[in-house]
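Below is a filled-in request sheet from our internal design queue. Each sheet records the structural input a requester submitted and the sequence that came back. We keep these sheets so that new team members can see what a complete request looks like end to end.

REQUESTER: design group, bay 2
PRIORITY: normal
MODE: inverse folding
CHAIN LENGTH: 264
BACKBONE (tokenized):
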């Protein structure tokens, strides 16, 4: 059953061998939601550590609500997990996907390059499930850390172009976080995007991802967003989800704006 996925992906990737803004254009029509500030919009993020590091779901929620809208962002995350595992857990425990307006899909970072059939299969299954309940599916376009760059340099396509293609195949919205990573690495190499394992996102990278998600969901620029977000824990004490350096935050917002501007 998985062979057709590989054939279809291969054909599409032949048309998308480089990653650029033009490769995202056909997703625009799937992101024309008019945000009703009187109605709470609900987002479910399914994934692994690339989703939960540095409180990404909470930071996205804070960003979305900074403009007088009402959003709740929930997560189903397990370190090192893949969409296949989440598909099984959903069937066992029921993730209640039909109660959400947006569904974010984060597969294991190596799967687009090393297990493309599995990656395609479960993105397809989740997007079909989402559409049955009028939930908008979002494919989290993760980045290539050094290990993955060593793999993709010998392939015709990289992680971002593969995930972009899978989003196109399934009429889902591609979230170009990995493309924003590339832009920062090429133009602002002094901004650190990785933890010391050269894989997981730093606070800067999580802020970048949040800005990209914000723009892709709302259709608005993240320029001018606060650089820190806080809340109160169960004891009523203030906690900070993220704090971004004063001089770094505007650069990150600018990059997120450049990468996502064609959608708006």
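RETURNED SEQUENCE:
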């Amino acid at each position: 059953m998985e062979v057709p996925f590989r054939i279809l992906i291969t054909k599409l990737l032949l048309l998308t061998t480089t990653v650029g803004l033009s490769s995202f254009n056909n997703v625009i029509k799937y992101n024309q939601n008019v945000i009703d500030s009187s109605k709470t919009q609900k987002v479910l993020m399914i994934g692994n550590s690339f989703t939960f590091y540095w409180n990404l779901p909470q930071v996205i929620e804070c960003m979305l609500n900074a403009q007088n809208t009402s959003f709740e962002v929930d997560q189903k995350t397990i370190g090192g997990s893949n969409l296949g595992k989440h598909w099984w857990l959903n069937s066992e425990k029921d993730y209640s996907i039909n109660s959400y307006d947006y569904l974010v899909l984060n597969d294991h970072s190596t799967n687009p390059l090393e297990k493309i059939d599995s990656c395609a299969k479960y993105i397809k299954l989740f997007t079909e499930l989402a559409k049955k309940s009028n939930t908008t599916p979002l494919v989290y376009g993760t980045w290539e850390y050094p290990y993955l760059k060593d793999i993709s340099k010998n392939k015709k396509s990289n992680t971002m172009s593969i995930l972009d293609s899978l989003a196109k195949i399934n009429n889902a919205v591609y979230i170009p976080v990995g493309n924003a990573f590339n832009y920062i690495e090429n133009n602002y190499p002094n901004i650190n995007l990785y933890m010391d394992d050269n894989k997981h996102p730093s606070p800067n990278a999580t802020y970048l991802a949040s800005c990209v998600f914000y723009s892709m969901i709302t259709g608005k620029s993240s320029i001018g967003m606060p650089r820190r977000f806080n809340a109160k824990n169960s004891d009523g004490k203030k906690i900070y989800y993220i704090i971004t350096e004063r001089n770094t935050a505007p650069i990150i917002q600018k990059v997120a704006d450049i990468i996502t501007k064609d959608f708006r």
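SHEET NOTES:
- The CA atoms of residues 40 and 107 lie 27 Å apart.
- The beta strands are 41-47, 71-77, 102-105, 136-140, 173-175, 228-232, 238-243.
FILED BY: M.R.
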